[in-house]
Amino acid sequence: MTSAELPAPYGEGVAAPGSAAHASDPAKRPGRIRLHHLQQAKDEGRRFAMLTAYDQYAAQVFDEAGVEVLLVGDSAANNVLGHATTLPITLDEMILFSRTVSLAARRALVVADLPFGSYEVSAEQAVESAVRLLKEGLVHAVKMEGSAQYADTVRALVKAGIPVMAHIGFTPQSEHALGGYRVQGRGQTAERLRDDALILAGAGAFCVLMEMVPADVAREIDAALQVPTIGIGAGSGTTGQVLVWQDMAGLRGGRAATFVKQYADLRGTLSDAARTFADEVRSGTFPGPEHSF
């Protein structure tokens, strides 16, 4: 193995995650992003990116683009499978999506959600579910929604050798209990959210994701934690940022959430391509001689 293939910071001239060289020069990216690379980014004041991925082509594209973390989210339920919420997706379905992404990603750290119903009963249930995601889904870590009440579960997972990303703030699996999609951590609940983050990190979570949290609260939590944070709808003060890729690339139709920035109009591009294809088929233009044997 040459030095160029060694993970940062071990290989000479290999750029660290979150650096400009890492993003612009594929040859200088580490062989595989590991947990300590994300921690290094936090320690050195750098930032990193995370996108959801559910299939091999998206995973390959984002991996080659230098996105440090790929999240196989339970959001596959409402972004791939057609459900209205994340709740219906099963562990078996998550394993299938996870394995597809893990086999395609060469450099990115792959994290998978523990879906609703796969960890709430007991720490033992959580460990069993997470083991399947690592063993069958081939992911490198799991993400688990929940407050400080899941600290013992985090400890059990970490004890079993399973890295855990904690998810606080708005937790979609609890949308019915939370009264719908609402910002969390406003007013007097900000201190409780901070306590949740500290307790979960203290239990062994390598990272804390905050969703739909006021920017000033998320910034204070990031400053209070030694581990990196990731934000979605949590302002710019977190170590990393994540978006659902269909939102980021403009594939989803309808109104986007306030925190989404659309970097492309993939829905429009695909629509134009499909319309042109259909028109050419109807007119007899396609297939032409060059497309025939």
Summarize the entry for a quick read.
This protein has 12 helices and 8 strands. With 293 residues, the protein is of the alpha/beta class.
Q: What does this protein structure show overall?
A:
It is globular and about 65 Å long. α6 (123-135) packs across α7 and α9 (189-202) packs parallel to α10. Helices cover 39% and strands 13% of the residues. It has one domain (35-249): TIM Barrel, CATH 3.20.20. The model is unreliable at 1-14 (pLDDT under 50). The protein contains 12 helices and 8 strands. It has helices at 20-24, 35-43, 56-64, 76-79, 91-104, 123-135, 151-159, 175-178, 189-202, 215-224, 245-248, 266-283; strands at residues 48-52, 69-72, 109-113, 141-145, 164-169, 207-211, 229-232, 240-243. It is an alpha/beta fold.
Give descriptors for this structure.
single chain, 293 residues, alpha/beta, eight-stranded parallel barrel, 12 helices, 8 strands, globular
Topology:
Elements: H1 20-24, H2 35-43, E1 48-52, H3 56-64, E2 69-72, H4 76-79, H5 91-104, E3 109-113, H6 123-135, E4 141-145, H7 151-159, E5 164-169, H8 175-178, H9 189-202, E6 207-211, H10 215-224, E7 229-232, E8 240-243, H11 245-248, H12 266-283
Parallel strand pairs: 1-2, 1-8, 2-3, 3-4, 4-5, 5-6, 6-7, 7-8
Binding site for 3-methyl-2-oxobutanoate: 74-75, 113, 143
Keywords: Cytoplasm, Magnesium, Metal-binding, Methyltransferase, Pantothenate biosynthesis, Transferase
GO biological process, one term: methylation
